[in-house]
Amino acid sequence: MDLDIEIDGWPSSYDWADLAYRATEAAEKVAPELANGRLTASVLFTIDEDVRTLNREWRTKDKPTNVLSFPMLTREELLGLTPEGGPEMLGDLALAWETCMREAAEKGIPLESHALHLLVHGLLHLAGYDHEISEQDAEAMEGMEIKALALLGLPDPYGDRDNQE
């Protein structure tokens, strides 16, 4: 999958584009339908206010959130996509700087680790996975995230819920 990456408001001291490609490679391994070379996704690393605006316009929620995903293909269209043909836009992701920083600090983990998790999570949403449908769907999606993060050398973000509270 090809990525169109824009970085606005995130510190230049880290290679966020490389991080996005690493997350994509891991997501493709747990969700092979994402590995189609025709696919393109846009990734926007931006500030809370921009994500708040998107969230208000598209989801009628007037607040920032850590990651937003805007799929442009249905799950059926993605699964039916052949390797031959022109480029296909999978969708858009937007990550909010201040929210991601705050959540990483609250979890006591590096921002880069949290951003990797959020990117994998968002990519799985673009692939049609949805944790809000049912508990079974949530567990399946979390399992995929755990596998992808393990490929990146990161621990299970859901494993110690009881110890985090």
UniProtKB/TrEMBL annotation:
E.C. code: 3.1.-.-
User: Which key words tag this protein in UniProt?
Assistant: Cytoplasm, Endonuclease, Hydrolase, Metal-binding, Nuclease, Ribosome biogenesis, rRNA processing, Zinc
Localization in the cell? Cytoplasm
Q: An example of a Gene Ontology BP annotation on this entry?
A: rRNA processing
Cofactor needs: Zn(2+)
The UniProt GO MF terms for this protein read: metalloendopeptidase activity; RNA endonuclease activity; zinc ion binding
Write out the residues that bind Zn(2+): H121, H125, H131
Against Pfam families, the record matches this protein to:
YbeY
Name the Gene3D superfamilies on file: Metalloproteases ('zincins'), catalytic domain
Example GO CC term: the record gives: cytoplasm
Q: What class of enzyme is it?
A: hydrolase
Per the entry, the cofactor note is:
Binds 1 zinc ion.
Indicate the family of this protein: Belongs to the endoribonuclease YbeY family.
Q: Which PANTHER family match?
A: ENDORIBONUCLEASE YBEY, CHLOROPLASTIC
| NCBIfam families per the UniProt record, alphabetical | rRNA maturation RNase YbeY (TIGR00043)
**What exactly does this protein do?**
Single strand-specific metallo-endoribonuclease involved in late-stage 70S ribosome quality control and in maturation of the 3' terminus of the 16S rRNA.
**Full protein name:** Endoribonuclease YbeY
List the source organism.
Pelagerythrobacter rhizovicinus
